[in-house]
Design goal:
By secondary structure, the chain is an alpha/beta fold. It has 20 helices and 34 strands. It has an 8-stranded mixed beta sheet with strand order 17-16-18-19-23-22-21-20.
């Protein structure tokens, strides 16, 4: 009897839930000819009729008793309609749907990630140890999820599905090579999992998933579960194959293992410094500093000379920016002795940093103390002429009694005996091209043009454009530059002399103004009067004011303003230039809109800065002197090996600015692969340096490449650079979890993505899958169960007793 009741109850439960035991499918059928809508209408009409009858019926029954009696009668009607339907229960034995479990065993799964929250790390370590494992590697975390609580997850999956387990790395392989392959059973899998190692040299996750989906063709597959860090080193990614899974109606449930943030690292790159400098020059070491995982932290960068590492030349604290965002950093140093020195720029390792190879770069800098040959021409002995002549004549090389400047002066208004009395004086300005080209820099003050023939002016132009000499032009109240508007020298000036004007003769010059370096100017070598930008700005603010200046509102195209008058604005709203510069051919021209720099020398303590300014200016303009006979240019790449799909960054650097093209896109590089296929790339000038051009080349096929400068044409062998584009180098090239790819794959396939801490929701989210019928069992008639007869009699009897008690019989 009890077995019969249990069977009836089991039948009713399966009938109501339409769900049987694993491996069983439940369906229902009836013999009633009318649809459910007709039955519902009949039941509603009958219920309304019953309620109406009971509402009008007389007797002692109150409203509650009548409602109970009406409910009994309505339940009887519902029971009768249910029995008239003739419901049948059908059971079908089915084959369980497949569920494929994939475990990534590539090399990156051996990574032990950092955890920024100690509670998370401690909790995972406790769970790993409870599962019989020792490390917090990504593979051990996958094992933990499957092995903990005696393999509960595996057992439940095996009960609900026909479970198949594969390893995926370079390819899809059964978890074990023994009998049974991918379908051995949970007891064997638990042993196989313990011995699983992350040893595959590559990750072809997309291809492996494609192969698994192909093997499942024709099989009912509920889902694919993948335990992986999502890192694909070759072929398609998981997200790229997710569309194929969706077309097959196979959702992907992806458990991401590892840290999605890149490993913590500080990287120093793109070190740029002049190869040859003068003793006493302020040498700038410019580089890019980027960090991952250290945003907001302080890092120490140092500049050291080889052999003196214990005594860094410069040390600076840098606040690191956002992850992956390069910061431009400059370390400045004044060498005090000549020679060839190997400098090392390095960033001090931070806590938790694994890769220290990219924390240091070295460069060899040649420090020279060659004397400069300077020619200074002036019509009359102005204050600037006297002070500057004195300073340059007395300038000595550091740590030496030798002169730093071999000065020659030409004073047009001087009497004939002046040249005999002054050892620096020459009688006339050089008339031949060869004589002029022997100088490194020409200081052109307030010069009377009547003493200069047109051929001499053309020699000056050639001195700048062709020889690469430096030219400093000083405005004056008598001649320069207004008297040269219609001469060949006008084209050399950074300002347009046609729109320039000078204060009226005799005008009261009682309103002073302080020259203010521009952002570009304060970082240029001539204007850096101290060893840092803030200190230089402080010196400029302390210098005495000037009173006389030329008004030159219009700049030549490409001219750069180094210092401006903050008290006066041009027509366009910009500050009027006081010190400006432009590149002309192979040389540089600096224009001073005043002749009052001597006021610095008269200021207490200012003579030192006056001398420094002019020596730095002359050395800056004569930089080509250091490069004579050396390398003309170089072509570099930021790396010598690139992974397929990465962008190649090429940089052309002209050591001699005379050779740099005037056009900002005047450098063309040819890329040639081993198959003699060529590609042309245009480099563009760096805004901060005339001689530096950069460009990017992307989507290069695998192979070895040689790049060389095609234009401009340089003497000798053109500078070249070799690099290679290779297939993904392996599992250690990228160690952060590719959470974005896994999330995209889950979304595309209509599955789910989980972290390790969210993986407990996996079982509840898995679909049941489509089951395949193997055998149909005999149908069970639900309508003629004795249970319904007993219920019918119980309802009739209870209604009769209630009516009798209420006096309604």
């Amino acid at each position: 009897m009890s077995e019969s009741l249990v069977g009836v109850w089991s039948d009713l439960r399966d009938f109501v839930l339409a769900r049987g035991a694993p491996g069983t499918e439940i369906t229902r059928s009836h013999s009633w000819p009318w649809g459910p809508s007709v039955a519902i209408v009949l039941v509603v009409l009958a219920a309304a009729f019953v309620i109406g009858i009971y509402a009008r019926e007389q007797g002692r029954a109150g409203r509650l008793q009548k409602a109970v009696l009406a409910a009994h009668r309505i339940l009887l009607i519902v029971l009768v309609v249910f029995l008239l339907y003739g419901w049948m229960l059908h059971r079908h034995r089915t084959d369980l749907p497949d569920l494929v479990l994939l475990i990534d065993d590539s090399g990156s799964m051996a990574t032990v990630d950092e955890y920024h929250q100690d509670a998370e790390r401690v909790g995972l370590a406790r769970r790993v140890q409870a599962a019989g494992l020792t490390e917090l590697s990504r593979l051990d975390l996958a094992k933990m999820l499957l092995l903990e609580r005696n393999g509960e997850l595996l057992r439940q999956l095996e009960q609900r599905y026909r479970l198949k387990v594969y390893r995926v790395g370079g390819s899809a392989r059964a978890l074990t090579g023994g009998a049974g392959g991918a379908e051995r059973g949970s007891a064997a899998w638990l042993q196989d999992l313990l011995g699983l190692q992350a040893s595959e040299p590559s990750s072809r996750l997309g291809k492996s998933l494609q192969d698994v989906l192909a093997m499942q063709r024709g099989r009912p597959t509920a889902a694919v579960i993948l335990f992986s860090d999502g890192v694909t080193t070759e072929g398609k990614t998981v997200a790229e194959v997710a569309g194929d899974a969706r077309r097959r109606a196979v959702p992907l449930f992806l458990v991401g293992l590892g840290n999605s943030r890149p490993p913590r690292d500080v990287r120093l790159a793109d070190l740029l410094v002049d190869d040859v400098v003068f003793v006493g020059d302020l040498v700038h070491f410019d580089f890019k500093l980027s960090a991952t995982g250290y945003a907001g932290q302080r890092a120490t960068v140092r500049l050291a000379v080889r052999g003196r590492e214990g005594q860094p030349a410069v040390e600076q604290q840098i606040t690191l920016g956002q992850d992956g965002l390069p910061q431009s950093v400059r370390l400045s140093y004044r060498p005090e002795e000549k020679g060839d020195f190997e400098f090392a720029v390095e960033v001090e390792p931070l806590a938790g940093e694994g890769n220290l190879e990219n924390n240091r770069q070295t460069r060899v800098v040649k420090v020279r103390d060659d004397a400069l040959r300077v020619l200074y021409v002036q019509a009359y002995p102005s204050y600037d002429f006297r002070y500057l002549k004195t300073v340059l004549s007395r300038s000595l090389k550091p740590n030496s009694n030798d002169k730093a400047v071999e000065l020659t002066t030409v004073l047009q208004d001087a009497d004939p005996e002046h040249a005999a009395q002054d050892e620096t004086a020459a009688r006339v300005f050089p008339v031949s091209r060869e004589e002029l080209f022997a100088y490194d820099v020409l200081i052109f003050g307030d010069v009377n043009p009547s003493f200069l023939s047109r051929s001499v002016m053309e020699h000056i132009v050639a001195f700048v454009q062709q020889r690469g000499g430096g030219l400093v032009v000083l405005a004056g109240p008598a001649y320069t530059p207004l008297a040269y508007r219609d001469t060949p020298l006008a084209a050399l000036l950074p300002v347009n002399p046609d729109t320039a004007s000078v204060p009226a003769p005799g005008a009261a010059l009682d309103q002073g103004f302080a020259p203010q370096p521009t952002r570009l100017g304060i970082t240029s070598p001539p204007l850096q009067l101290a060893d840092s930008v803030p200190a230089s700005l402080a010196v400029w603010r302390e210098m005495p004011e000037w009173y006389w200046s030329l008004t030159a509102p219009d700049l030549r195209p490409g001219a750069r303003v180094l210092a401006a008058d903050p008290s006066r604005l041009g027509a366009g709203g910009e500050h009027l230039p006081l010190i400006s510069m432009q590149f002309v051919g192979a040389g540089k021209v600096v224009f001073h809109a005043t002749d009052e720099t001597y006021r610095w020398a008269r200021h207490p303590g200012g003579e030192r800065y006056y001398a420094r300014y002019w020596l730095q200016m002359l050395r800056y303009l004569s930089r080509a002197k250091l490069l004579e006979g050396g390398r003309l240019a170089e072509l570099t790449a930021d790396r010598t090996e690139y992974r397929r799909g990465e962008t190649v960054r090429l940089r052309a650097r002209f050591f001699d600015d005379r050779l740099a093209p005037s056009s900002d896109d005047g450098v063309t590089v040819l890329l040639e692969s081993e198959g003699n296929q060529r590609r042309q790339l245009t480099l563009h000038r760096d805004a901060a340096s005339r001689g530096v051009f950069e460009g990017l080349a992307g989507n290069l096929p695998d192979g070895k490449y040689r790049a060389w400068i095609a234009t401009p044409a340089l003497a000798g062998q053109p500078p070249s650079q070799r690099f290679a584009v290779v297939a993904p180098p392996g599992e250690q090239a990228r160690l952060e979890m590719d959470a974005a790819d896994l999330q995209a794959a889950a979304k595309t396939s209509q599955g789910r993505f989980y972290t390790v801490l969210q993986a407990h929701r996996l079982l509840d989210d898995l679909p049941r899958g489509r089951q395949v019928r193997i055998e149909s069992l005999p149908p069970v008639p639900i309508w003629n169960s004795s249970l319904w007869a007993g219920l019918f009699v119980a309802l009739i009897a209870s209604e009769w007793l209630l009516r009798k008690r209420a006096g309604m019989l």
